[in-house]
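[Meeting: bench + compute handoff]

Bench side (C.D.) handed over the final construct sequence. Compute side (W.E.) agreed to return the predicted structure before the next meeting so the bench team could plan truncations. Sequence as handed over:
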Amino acid sequence: PSMLAWLKLMSHPDGKISFFNDSATNIAPENSQVFDYAARLGIQFNHTFGHSILPESGYFRLESSHSVLIGDVGRIGPDYLPSHAHADTLSFEFSLFGQRLIVNSGTSEYGLGPERLRQRGTPAHSTLSINRANSSDVWSGFRVGTRARPGAVAFQTFDTEAMVQGSHDGYRVEAGSPVHCRKWSLKPGYLKIEDTVSGSSSYNIDVIFRLHPGISAVQGHKNNVVLTLPSGDTALFEHATGLDVIIEATTWHPKFGTTEESSLIRCTKKGKGTTNLKFILTWAE
């Protein structure tokens, strides 16, 4: 029952898994098959979650009416077995109105090639990178050197809002040993993401929001991007002033041997000392 509940928590409203580390569909039975099998065996588990923290694995799930957020605030994996790890600390995925909106890139291949390395790297995930480096030193096909060490996790719930905050020191090998802290706040019609980078030297920040292939992204007025879902629903992505923001073509890999064209929002800034960034996603309930 605990394993079934964990699987349900780590899955999107479309009934399929989220993409952290070496996750891919079409390898194991689909969720629906696993849950049907459990039902035939008479195994029951909790189907109602709301906001949940999974401290053993380092993930969390926030739900608010039409939205679901799944995020990573933990270690990349067991210290003795990091072979399937990605440098994805403080990345997240987000579904709105039952459709995936913000995603990680997924996994389409193993081996020792450059594409395998790219998919394991931090920029292939919806998170922040410093100096375009990886938060954990992924190398070869299944190796990890220096890795991000997560800090304490804060979790609070209010009347209609939930907040999760985490941090890591994976960029301690960069000049000034910058630390990344990220806070997510979710309530009906509103998601706020706050990134703080603290270091003693100057650095370059890239914050990436990877979009599902079904999402259309168009630069709007001032500091916003209009996102249109396959259903026709829209969301407004607003970013802090002083950022260079572009929409780039990229790819998504939900299963082995599969590449789908998609896009991402890249927000860049030069920082020094402590830099605070804020991003807000709003939609009509």
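W.E. noted at the follow-up: Helices lie at 2-9, 31-40, 114-120. C.D. will use this when planning the next construct.
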